[in-house]
Amino acid sequence: MGQMDFIDLEVVLSNFHQAANDALKEFSCLVEASCKMIDYSENATYLVEDMQGEKYILRISRPNYHKKEEIEAEIAWLNSLHEQSPIDVSLPMRADDGDYVHAHEYNDTIYYSTLFTFLEGNAPDENNEENLIQQFETLGEITAMFHKHTIEQHDYYKAFQRMTWDYDTILGQSPKWARWQDGLGMTPSRIALYEEATLVIQKRLDAYGKSQTRFGLIHADLRLANLLIYGDEIKVIDFDDCGFGWFLYDVATSVSFIEHMPYLDDLIASWIKGYSKIRTLTDEEIEMIPTFILMRRLQLISWIGSRDNDTTRLLGENYTLQSDALVKAYLEKYQN
Asked: Which residue, among 70, 247, 100, 37, has the nearest Cα to 176 in the 3D structure?
C-alpha cells in the first residue's frame, strides 16, 4: 500500500460487525451472548460475554492479510507455548465443529474469525517511567522464553506458513505494510537522510546474519498495547503479526512509538537484564539493538502513513518529525 487509502469506514465496520455476529453462531453456547467492539486498528476486536458472565475475545481479521493456514499456524504456536512454556497467552477456542478459524464472506471479501480466552490486566503506562522500567525487566525474561522455545522447536516451526520480517519486507523492495518513503511528513531531503540510514541498517543486518540462534519464529509486535499487567505478571496478547524474524526485533517492537523518549536507554538496560536471566546475549548482539529499533521506527512511519485509525491519527506527521534526531544520532554512531 502506498499513501493512505481513504475508505468508507461505515461500510467496513458494518462488515466486521456482521462477521462478528455470524462468528458467534459457530458456538452454541454463545448464541445469546453480548458482543461489543473494543478495538479497531488492523483487525476488529470484540468483547464477548455469555449468560454466565464468562468473557472471551473475538477477533475478526482484516481481509487479504492472512490466509486461513497462516492463522492456523499462529494458533498452533499459541497452543505450543501454553503447553510447553510458562508464558501466559490468550488461548484459541474450538467452535462446535471443532475448528478454530471460520470464514465469513460478504461482497466477495473473506473475513476470518477466531475466538480467544479473556485475560485480565491493563496495558503498561508509558507515562509511569519507574514502573515501566521495572516491567521491562520482566518483559525481557518473557521474550527470552519465547526465543528459547522457538530455538528448541526449530524443526517443528520452520514448516509453519507465516510471514517473514527481514530487511526486504520491512524497509526494502517488498514491504509487508507500506513504503516508509510514503510516510507522513516526507520531503526529498528527509528521504535522502533516511535512505542513508537504511543503507547502514542493511549493511549491519547482512553482517549479523540469520543463524538459528538469531533468527526464528517471533511475536513481532510486543508493543505496550499488546501487554497486560496483572499484579506482578505480564501477559502477552495479539500474535497476529507473528512470523520469522530476528529475535532482537522483538525488543525493538516493545519500544514502538516511544523510541524517542528520554528513558529509552533505561528500558533497554532493564530488558537486557531480564533477558539475560534466560538467554545469554553477546556484546555483538547488544550492539545490534539500536539498528533494530531504528528499523522498527521507520517501519512504523510506513504504517502511520498507510492506515487510518485512532492511533495513526494521534501520532500523525509528528512521529516522522521526531524521528529526525534518532536517524542523525544513528548515522553519527554507525556510518563509516
From this structure: 70
Cell numbers for 307, please give them.
492506515
C-alpha cell at 223: 508493543
| pLDDT value of residue 6 | 44
Q: What average pLDDT does the chain have?
A: 95
Beta-bridge partner residues of 37: 46
CA distance 203 to 231: 42
Q: How confident is the model at residue 7 (pLDDT cuts 50, 70, 90)?
A: low
| Helices and strands in the chain, H and E counts | 11, 10
Backbone phi and psi for residue 210, each to the nearest 5 degrees, phi listed first: -125, 45
Amino acid letter, 192: A
- Please report which confidence band the pLDDT of residue 1 belongs to, taking 50, 70 and 90 as the band edges: very low
Query: Taking CA 289 as the corner, what is the angle to CA 145 and CA 179, rounded to the nearest 5 degrees?
Result: 105
In this structure, are residues 271 and 254 in contact, taking their beta carbons and an 8 Å threshold? Answer: yes
Cα separations in angstroms, 273 against 106, 133, 152, 249, 279: 49, 11, 22, 17, 10
Q: Where are the beta strands (DSSP E) in the chain?
A: 34-40, 44-49, 55-60, 101-106, 109-117, 164-165, 215-218, 227-230, 233-236, 243-246
Residue 336's pLDDT band, with cuts at 50, 70 and 90, is: confident
